[in-house]
Design goal:
InterPro entries: Acyl_CoA_acyltransferase (IPR016181), Bact_Acetyltransf (IPR050832), GNAT_dom (IPR000182). Residues 18-171 form the N-acetyltransferase domain. This is Acetyltransferase. Pfam families: Acetyltransf_1. A hairpin with a 2-residue loop joins β1 (9-13) and β2 (16-22). The chain has an 8-stranded mixed β-sheet, sandwiched between helices. The protein has one domain (9-188): Aminopeptidase (3-Layer(aba) Sandwich). The longest helix is centred in the middle third of the chain and has 15 residues, at 112-126. It is built from 6 helices and 8 strands. It is 31% helix and 34% strand.
Length: 197
């Protein structure tokens, strides 16, 4: 899915120099350490708990199968973020991709999440997807604002959709982006290639 982007790639943020690179099996211990430091609440919008070693192994298997592309944000050799693009070419929705993104607490508000979301969005554009979705708990206001700034719009509210380890239920908001429509509008205005980074 990532043939149009080359990695590693470096970005300057308020948190310092961040390297983006594609996740591989060798990154499993570093990603597990990153996931285990995240507040549990930050993991609720993901379909599975990535702080569990067996879940992480299954994730790497999906990367190797080509169903998932995961970008790691690395600062001074430590994973500080992960942006993932999930596509299923064998589903009824092969034109739709899901973006999942988590960033460590110590670099939040410093441009890492914005750079990672833009890079993951660029990967999705390169994959030729027509629609993108992203989901998060309704109280993750900064993340919602970040994706809205990329053109995502709220499309659904799933009430009591996830349950945390204390048994408390949380609502999930689903944001969508019609990439094909935006691309067509830009081309109509004479800006071909404007959505390709």
């Amino acid at each position: 899915m990532s043939e149009t982007r080359s990695y590693p790639r470096h970005v300057k943020t308020d948190a310092g120099d961040i390297e983006f690179r594609l996740m591989a099996r060798a990154d499993e211990p570093a990603v597990l350490a990153f996931a285990q430091k995240l507040p549990t609440h930050d993991l609720l919008f993901l379909p599975r708990n990535i702080s569990q070693p067996k879940v992480l192994s299954a994730w790497v298997n999906e990367i190797e199968r080509g169903a998932i592309t995961s970008l790691l944000a690395v600062k001074n050799g430590t994973v500080v973020g992960c942006g993932t693009l999930v596509c299923d070419p064998h589903s009824w929705s092969p034109h739709v991709g899901g973006i999942r993104m988590v960033v460590s607490l110590d670099v939040r508000g410093q441009g890492v999440g914005r750079a990672l979301s833009q890079e993951t969005f660029a990967l999705a554009l390169g994959a030729g997807l027509e629609r993108l979705t992203v989901q998060m708990t309704v109280d993750q206001q900064a993340a919602i604002a970040l994706f809205e700034s990329l053109g995502f719009k709220a499309e659904a509210l799933l009430r009591d959709h996830v349950r945390d380890i204390d048994g408390k239920k949380h609502d999930i908001v689903v944001l969508g982006h019609n990439v094909a429509q935006v691309r067509a509008q830009l081309e109509a205005y004479g800006v071909p290639g404007a959505v390709q980074h």
